[in-house]
Each structure stands twice: as C-alpha cells, then as structure tokens.
Design brief:
Elements (H helix, E strand, L loop, with lengths): L9 H8 L2 H14 L5 E5 L5 H8 L4 E6 L4 H10 L6 E5 L14 E4 L11 H12 L5 E3 L2 E9 L2 H10 L8 H7 L4 E3 L11 E2 L3 E2 L8 E6 L4 E15 L2 E4 L11 E12 L4 E7 L10 E6 L2 E6 L8 H9 L16 H9 L7 H11 L7 H17 L1
Parallel strand pairs: 1-2, 1-4, 2-3, 4-5
Antiparallel strand pairs: 6-8, 6-9, 6-11, 7-13, 10-14, 11-12, 11-13, 14-15, 15-16
Length: about 375
Amino acid sequence: MATLFGYSDPATQAWMILDAVRTDAYAEAIAATVGPDDVVLDIGSGSGVLALLAAKAGAKKVYALEMGSAKHLLRAHVQENGWADVIEIVEGNLRDAPPMDPKPTVILAEMLGHFAPQERMHALYAIARDRLAAPGARMIPGRYRLSFGLAHLESLQADVDRLHDVHGVRFGYLTDRLLARPTLTRVSADAMVSGEAGTEWVACDGPRPTTYEVSVPVVRSAPVNAIVVSWEAELAPGVMLGTRPGDPVTHWVQLVLPLHPALEVHEGERAQIVFNPRILTDRGSYAWRLRVGDRDVGGDAMNSMVGGNDLATVAARMGLTLKQPERFDATVDLEAWRAALAEGVEGVTISDLAQRVLDAQPGRFASLDDARQCAMGLLRAAEAL
C-alpha cells in the first residue's frame, strides 16, 4: 500500500493497522494491562486504533492526544465505534496539554519506529509521567532493547555492481554516498553471518543511551557488507514485539548499516560493533563501526547527506532566522556556520564544515561530533523552512 503524505495520510495509517503482528501484539498488551478502573493516555493517537482498543478493554476514560493532521481520522473513528463518551480527544502538543482529571494510570504509545527509540519516545514518556500521569502509571511499552548482527546482503552487492556498470557508465561517487547511508530492508535469517547480540533493557521513560557497543560471534565465513539493527520491546509482562531477522515480518523490517568495502570475516572470530545514533529521529545522523581483530570498517551518514549545490542552497537559507528543532539539543551559533559555509561548499561534507568551525573557534564545541550534530540540526531546520 503506497504512502505519500506521512502520518496524516490515510494510506499510512491503514498500512500500520494492517500490520497484524504489530496490531495484534498491542491488542494483547492492552487487554492484559487495562481494567475498568484505569485511565489511559494515548500519545500520538493517529487513527485512534490504540485508544479504541483501550476503550474496548474496559478503560473508564481514554485521553487520545494528537497534534498532527490525522485528527480527522481519530474523530471519525471514535464516532464510528460509539466511544465518544469514553474517549476524549486532546489536540496539541504533549508539553502544552492541560492537566488531566482523572489522571492517567496507563501511558500508551506506539513510537517504536524502524529504530526502536523513535519520535522522541524517551522525552515524551518522561513528560507524560511527570506532568500528567498518576504516580506509578504503567507504560505500554515499558522497555526495549536493540539487537545487532552481521550480514552478507546479496541485494546490496547487486545494487553496487549495477551502479558500477550501467550500460558501460560508472556511478562511483553516487555509490559511495549511498553506502554511507542507513537503509531499511527485510533481512532474512539466512543472510546473517553472525549471531546476534542484544543490549541491556532500556526503560522507555528513562535516559536514552547515546552509544551502543556489542560483541557478536561470526558463525560462517563470508564478506560482511552490512550491520543489521533490530529491536525487541516488552509491551506488557509476557507480551513481546520484535523485528529481528527470523521474527514474524512487520512493516518496520530491519535497519541496515552498510559496510563499504565489505569486510571478510571467518567462522569463530568475534566482531565488535559500535553504533552512535546521535540524533535518534534522524537516520542521517547515525555513525557505526565494525572491528574484527585489527581490521575495521564503518560509516558516517553525516558525510553522505549534502555537498556542492545542496550546501550552497542551505547556505543561502541560513540567512533566514531558523527556529531550533526540538529534537536538537546543542547550542546553535548561526554566525559560525554561515562563516564556514561562506568559504565554499563544492564537494564539502558536514565533517569538513564542522572542522572549519572547530579550527576557527575551538572553544565553541567540545568535539568534532558535537559540531557535526549542530550542523545536522541547522541543515534540517533549513530544509524545513
């Protein structure tokens, strides 16, 4: 089912509801958690599917919070199913939501995404817990963990080979840029070259990790061209939902971090994977590295995002007043970045720009990584204008 216009698109909402693995798991978790004395807060209600399931499970009150343009779907479905006396639609941002009486005893949301802690999940759960919910409110999901493994993806290699010879024409520069970007694809268990290693469990309302590091065993010799990232979430005690290769297929599929060039690994070796998502909601900010013995390879999506005319356009737009994106926390100094951009942008990466700022004003950011995060925030803000 094609989707065109983000979460407000009816096709997008239908696509998610028709993911039976996702919807059935949430229905089971809600039925196991919500009782007749519960008040439920559904954050980002969208089509209203989770709010409606909570009402059906017997909640005495459901607050369906929605700030996007999917509100028309939510209102229609509440009326269609006859739950207007139970479900109260709250329009707007969670930060600005008025006090709720009675207070929610269950906080419900589906903000997992292709990479589990998506859509500012940690911050939003904490805001709901601290501002709106009753003490001891339960959360669906309550916790999650990531899983990492190595794969040889023949489809990825086939794409690379094709771009190197399109009727005798090479597209090496384009290929290098694409191979520095994460992608989303369905990975079969047969494609895995290593066992998988999971992180520690992370509470959805707790602090979010900034770096993940695991060690995985190589189970067969092969050229590894991808790190595969998946997740497992505990929606309720005994109710799990996951996206690992071999799990029932969901619309999330798997997050793939390309490795270029491919790294030859051998059965019995151990591989170290380091993953730094930087800005959780933006795959364009991810960095990753694989180490096996004294061999290593990795990628940094920040270096694939922009260059040449794209940066020139952004430079012009930075003459406007930019509103700092909520998802971006570093201090923004537009003048420093305007000066860096003014030096010329042909073939320049975000890391190049960050280094210019550090060289010119070394005390402005703590590290090159901090400067790159600032650049990403500015570029995203400029693109949104």
